[in-house]
Design brief:
The chain has six helices and twelve strands. It has 219 residues and is an alpha/beta fold. The chain has a single domain, classed as Rossmann fold (3-Layer(aba) Sandwich), CATH 3.40.50.10300. It has an eight-stranded mixed β-sheet with strand order 5-4-1-6-9-10-11-12, sandwiched between helices. Strand 11 and strand 12 form a beta hairpin. It binds cytidine-5'-monophosphate (C5P). Cytidine-5'-monophosphate binds next to helix 4 and strand 9.
């Protein structure tokens, strides 16, 4: 039996990719499956937390006992998260938010529109950075998906976004990361401490993340 050690915690989790539409049928996105964020939401629920999951498009069913808010674009995700931020004690931002969106969304599918017009992009707001600017007593956790070694980049994101810790994980590593049932991560903390979590099911990675959320929430 799982101990209800997160009873009373109000946790907001984001998961999955975003879709940035060019026109009614085409969009820019990424291969995020949502599994890591859903694992965090389910583990927290089982440990007694009240959980809201803001999810981009995924093939995963809504977890029972969790309020699921489905969104598509980064702007929709931003709104859904900001609306629930005051409620939350902690936020785990596992979504793979698209950094850019098309400058204009065409109303019709126009096959002859020039590629330069179709693919003119503007940056999306950094949702997590906005949360960090209004951090207060909240526990904030981000993810950093890197291609190289990535520790210094992850540290930069941790400080720039004013997070408690960041979960460093990798694209292109055999058997882990995007769409895989397992993950291998490094938790990077503000005081410079790092904790390596060797390859294991995402649910177990989620529990490790939540152990730290719990310790920070209690402090
Ligand atoms: O800067 P980078 O995109 O690598 O940062 C990753 C972290 O920031 C993730 O936790 C992601 O969910 C979050 N993020 C965000 N809004 C964006 C881009 C990333 O909240 N526009």
């Amino acid at each position: 039996l799982t101990p209800k050690d997160l009873g009373g915690l109000r946790l907001l989790v984001s998961a999955g990719p975003t879709r940035e539409y060019l026109d009614p049928v085409r969009f820019l996105s990424n291969p995020s499956s949502g599994r890591m964020g859903y694992a965090v939401a389910e583990a927290a629920r089982d440990r007694g937390a009240e959980v809201v999951l803001v999810s981009g498009p995924t093939a995963l069913p809504d977890p029972w006992g969790v309020e699921v808010v489905r969104v598509e674009s980064a702007l929709e995700m931003r709104q859904a998260i900001l609306e629930r931020y005051a409620w939350a004690d902690a936020v785990v931002m596992a979504a793979a938010v698209a950094d850019y969106r098309p400058a204009e969304v065409l109303k019709e599918k126009e096959p002859k529109v020039e590629a330069e017009r179709l693919l003119r992009l503007v940056p999306n707001p950094d949702i997590l950075k906005e949360l960090g600017e209004r951090k207060g007593q909240k526990v904030l956790v981000g993810f950093a998906m890197e291609t190289g070694e990535g520790l210094e980049r992850a540290r930069g994101k941790l400080l720039r976004k004013n997070l408690d810790f960041i979960v460093l994980n990798w694209v292109n590593r055999e058997g882990v990361g995007f769409a895989s049932p397992e993950n291998e991560v490094v938790l990077v903390f503000r005081d410079g401490r790092v904790e390596e979590v060797s390859r294991r099911p995402k649910r177990q990675v989620a529990d490790r993340i939540l152990d730290h959320v719990k310790a920070l929430w209690a402090s």
